[in-house]
């Protein structure tokens, strides 16, 4: 009897140990997040993103790593969003054009001739960002902190000081950019739809003789070597952000998610700071290499601004709601009231 009791005790202990082992969560496998961007290797954006990826790996003790596909090797931004939805990528660092393929209403933050200063744009975007974070989550994406492109100017091989001269150019038009498309149509501009990776060769061959971008993107993508002039008047202010699939985030623990998203927020701030500084330096670099900044006459500014305001209202209810446009104007005017022009 004593022998049977002993055997029963051993079996019971073994059974309990087995149940405990089965109930205990298995050690999580390392998670590698595949993230794409058009930003070229070595650019301001990639230096900060690579540094952030190293910090994510370090802070999570290598449980989470980010593999960046830079320089458009995964295609254009439309390809990134499609691949995220198919599970072939886990995220992407994109411009507002890429963001618009998830929820187009975010483009209300990038309307042409909307903002008079960076501080004004920051104020409005910071007020509205939580609103867009919630909209993106409903569509299965985590929208991280705001990134930056900067003031967007026209660049060309010939000088542009009138709207008629601008109309005479063969201008690049990002095929997926509905706002630029609307502006071109309103102003009667001659746009050639192309993806970002196609612009350099199109400038080289003469398929186009004008494009648009920030000073930093123009230098980073080497378009500056193929143009001679930049307009003084900015068309708009370009923003961006990194988006991640919510399904991809669920592969990691809650603590690791928080760590990565906290670091992503810091990366957004670092990118804004770095890009603003480097846009100034890129402008100086282009000037030293012979790119001429042409004065935009008040008449051309007025024509462009009038057309832009008409486009704002025409796109309300199509790309963004009338309420969302009203929100932007409300916060912009709120900022201007607090900071009257001197």
Q: What is the annotated CATH architecture?
A: 3-Layer(aba) Sandwich
Order of helices and strands: HEHEHEHHEHEHEHEHEEHHEHH
Shape assignment: globular
CATH topology: D-Maltodextrin-Binding Protein, domain 2
Number of folding domains?
A: 1
Oligomer: single chain
Keywords:
single chain, 342 residues, alpha/beta, D-Maltodextrin-Binding Protein, domain 2, 8-stranded mixed sheet, two-stranded parallel ribbon, 13 helices, 10 strands, 52% helix, 18% strand, globular, disordered N terminus
Describe the structure.
The structure is a single chain. By secondary structure, this protein is α/β, with parallel strands linked by helices. The protein has a single domain, classed as D-Maltodextrin-Binding Protein, domain 2 (3-Layer(aba) Sandwich), CATH 3.40.190. It contains 13 helices and ten strands. The protein has helices at 2-23, 44-59, 77-86, 96-100, 118-137, 163-167, 178-187, 196-205, 215-220, 246-249, 254-288, 298-315, 322-338, and strands spanning 31-37, 64-69, 91-95, 141-156, 171-174, 191-194, 210-213, 229-231, 236-245, 292-294. The strands form two sheets. Strands 1, 2, 3, 4, 7, 8, 9 and 10 form an eight-stranded mixed beta sheet that branches. The longest helix has 35 residues, at 254-288. It is globular, with a radius of gyration of 25 Å. Residues 1-27 have low confidence and may be disordered.
